[in-house]
Write a structure and sequence with these properties.
Elements: H1 2-24, E1 40-43, E2 46-49, E3 54-60, E4 63-68, H2 74-83, E5 90-92, E6 97-100, H3 106-143, H4 149-182
Antiparallel strand pairs: 1-2, 3-4, 4-6, 5-6
Helix pairs in contact: 1-3, 1-4, 3-4
Length: 184
Amino acid sequence: MKETINAAKEKMNKSLNALGNEFASIRAGRANPAVLDKVMVDYYGAPTPVNQMAAISVSEARILVIQPWDKSTLKLIEKAIQTSDIGITPVNDGNVIRLAFPQLTEDRRKELCKTIKKYGEECKVTVRSVRRDTMEKLKKMQKASELTEDDLKNGEKKVQDITDQFCADVDKMVADKEKEVMTV
């Protein structure tokens, strides 16, 4: 029973980490290298992430500098950023690419908050799905006489407590990210 509950905890933790990664890619008006994580460059026929082709640094609060290791890839990186959905026009000076993050409008902030809430709800659904699967496993173990009735009740309570904790963590992450977006 313990390994079943630990496996559930691990799956819930993975979904929380995925939510954190998703939030990192949401730009909140400040320059953040994580916004480029999903930008892929067609490099010799293979889609390659920008962060594997260049050094990415924050030069000022709202300016991201991309310095490719191979200068011949400058145009490819610029094109990939333009075709991506990050909504920032790259400035290529022949050596580096600069991304200037504009100040967010109030409408854009509200839109981002809706997206943040949606990601939070999706994460909670995943956590609850793990809870349901774990409860079913525990019931099967009880039917197979591997667990007593009391063990089943204790196991279900532990799984529910873990689920409640992860849902509270998701709520906190959502609230923190919304606060970050609204106060930039």
